[in-house]
Amino acid sequence: MDELLSEFLTETNEGLGFLDVELVKLEQNPNDPEILSNIFRLVHTIKGTCGFLGLPRLESVAHAGENVLGRVRDGELVVTPGIVTTVLDCLDRIREILGVLEATEAEPEGDDSELIGRLDAICEQVDSGELAPADEPAEVEVEIEEPVAETVEDDKVVALETPVHETAAAEPAKPTKAAKVEPPVAEPAHADVAEHAAPEHAAKESAVANQSIRVNVELLENLMTMVSELVLTRNQLLQILRQQKETDFAAPLQRLNHVVSELQEGVMKTRMQPIGNAWAKLPRIVRDLSLELGKKVELVMNGADTELDRQVLELIKDPLTHMVRNSADHGLEDPAERRRSGKSDTGTITLNAYHEGGHIIIEIADDGRGLNIDKIKAKALSNGVTNEAEMAGMSDQQIMQFIFKAGFSTAEKVTSVSGRGVGMDVVRTNIERIGGTIELNSITGRGSKFTIKIPLTLAIVSALIVECAEERFAIPQLSVIELVRASSKSEHRIERIKDTPVLRLRNRLLPLVNLRELLGLDNGFEVSANDRRDGFIVVAQVGTYNFGIIVDRVFDTEEIVVKPVAPILRDIALFSGNTILGDGSVVMILDPNGIAAATGEITVSDDRQVQKGARSRKEGEQVSLLVFRSGDTAPKAVPLALVARLEEVDLASVESSNGQQVVQYRGQLMPLVSMEEGRRLAAEGRQPVLVFADRDRHVGLAVDEIVDIVQDRLKIELTAERTGFIGSAVIAGKATDIVDTGFFLTKAYSDWFGAEGERMGDGNGKRILLVDDSPFFRNLMAPLLQAAGYEVTTVSDGSEALALCEAGEEFDAIVSDIEMPGIDGFELARQLRDNRWSSVPLVALTSHASPSHMARGREAGFTDYVAKFDRNALLTSLHDTLSDVRGAA
Amino acid sequence: MSQDRRQPNTDHAHEDGAEYVTFRIAKQLFGIHVLKVQDVLNHCKTTRIPLAPPEIAGSLNLRGRIVTAIDVRLRLGLPMRNADETPMSIVVENEGELYSLMVDSVGEVLPLTNGSWERNPPTLDPRLREYSEGIYRLDGELLVVLDVNRLLDYGGLKAA
Question: Name one GO cellular component term (chain B) (predicted).
């Protein structure tokens, strides 16, 4: 049997059983909206699925039933035993048809018009009761005549509520006797089908049941506990075996060993499934939908092998299907409309699944028309969910969230696909039930994206097991980029700037975190400074922030099941959970996000924390700064990210060339420049040098002493009047001069930036608008861009940028910071999209370039996203976007 | 799960003839209602949990479940036991989580009668009073009934 069909049968049978119970409950508590929406959803699901599977008979029956329930839900009908009976009849019919369907894989022939008539009549009673004037009873009579026969006696409430209707209802009630003659004709047929179906139905049920059974997760959980215990015992046995060389137990124990391993694997597998399983039926659904709706739809699925706990998978399956359906139905436009808005005929729905920071992220994105904010507003007002005053204070983002409310649908027509306002609320309920969240991003005309975030609590992840101070820890493999072995003899050695350890790694200084210190594991394990230079460095990535974690040893990677820590330990941010390793020992799972946060690096902000971000933004961004002394006593600083390496140059090796002091460095001549004009370096000794690198060129800035690396916000308090300085800022509590690196670079190579520009060859006087609230970055970026051949205009915030736009200025590209007071980058992008500059490429500069942040930026309308300080990336990005525009034009 | 099977009724302090698992900490006799106790362990290897409060001795694997070990001595504000004394542990379940309470030694299970029960004397050390459900008068010594829920109260622990 078709897998889709058999699944449908299993699910629907289950649903029907549930419905019977719920309907009876509803009869007892007719005013319970929760029961009612449960029922409505179930019937809606059945109807929807029938439509996809091409089961017109079932669909029409379910549709009629749903119509009745819809009226009840909307308060137009009051639940009466009569209505419930009719709906139950409807369910029985569905069950009969299913029985035959299961046996023959085809819908049986049959006439449901009588049943549908009865269901429709209930609806029409409402319609006519409200609308039918007294002088039109004849018409009503005709409509109701046959079907009402059975229901009308019970349906007193309807009759009472609509006195006008009473006569109409009463009249058909009189011929009841006559009508009652009719049902016997219908009923035998009904019974026939039932009889016919009954034996097969039973047979079929067991057949389907044989292929898949539903097992209580608790049972699996217990099973897993037992297996874990078995594994422990096995390990002990093996330990004993190792000590006794010759024993008869060796062979059976080896066998036991294998069986237990397989058993463990098997039990684990019962709980884990790739998310692809939940997606398997989507392509067919999308295909059928595209035919039905006359749209061209392409479904792209990424990350189908991301593993999910079975239970979680089950719970998100339906929401996912629903959302894909919604995207195809509401989100994507028909080809004609797409062509009008300049898109290709084929709409794309993209599904993405991946692990991120202890969560599984599932994204459902479409490139359709996006949400219609005005419609949502209108609907929210008419539904009474909110009022005008509240609405006025809401952002578009907040307004969009209304679609997650029950009974909220903006589709104009109720189609068989969607549009009954059942859906997004169910989706949200299901996701929240498993502790997940759902977020929505939508841009009018560009599409919508739902992001579902599900906690990893039950999921298996691959983790790197490391040791530090004789304790083992697990680090999720996903955040590990590479491992570096550091020793005082090798190329990679841990160096210290004051007390801050750093590592030179491929022309970059990598900040290091000593796990031993971070976790306070030093007690009793005081190791000499020399020993500490040896060890392993786990290079981890959080967003775009890379850092190294110093550990003593690195073991293997192991698949682990993440378990939450005890409540007492939940406020330790460095751990994301704990787990039991294969050998039975418990280890803590380190959370790289937590480590990054604990070591001063700002946490990667989350979309939901925009408000929070706005607050912290005012306090300024944290930047890693290298503090040094040179010349006078005032400390000086440069952003660490600009420094390629720290070197000590033997002054004896300094040579003079072309009036400039140079040193041979990596097979090339590296000019040395000093902070003070014309100062010659001493003839011997060692000279600390900050090396700035660009491609294959280096320049060394000779300094007196490297003081420290500090994390601090960079707020230029005084603008410098001296050349070579950008200004002064308070860093680590001291007034510090911020060095203009660009100045010293050009001092060494007068063509430093110029050559760059020629090489890039794309400046050509193109006009760039640079928007950044920080004078430091403006001062840093503007000369850089100018040097690359661009004509640069700088403004300090979004409103100034918009003012320029209004003033009729023209630019070829806009480079904007994200975090600015007033109009921030996202807002600026949104506003620009709606005005004259909508086609101007927009490049975002940000210090937290996390994937989610980038996605948000792209959706807001940014063409590209570049990490702050990454000069090359910015130039490349500009080069690419500008040539794209040229290419497109 | 086992929690349902073993979840005791709330107030067994006054349940006549209730059985208590007895244990000693710094020579003082304590008792925990027998139905609250999941297991009694000899000293076993625990994994240290860095940055945790000092009374958290670590975590261990008990038949596939992760158990948080708490040194009751430190929790009660008593000095650490000598290095040569190996503690024993009583495993209890609280709000779905397992905890292993490290004590000096575990004694026998005693049935205790209501007649010998007394409220905490008001002069009891405040730290002990906080975690004591009451006192039983035994022959020759007194038994303090340990209130496990309060002992493991997250908020309280944080404050402590």
Answer: cytosol
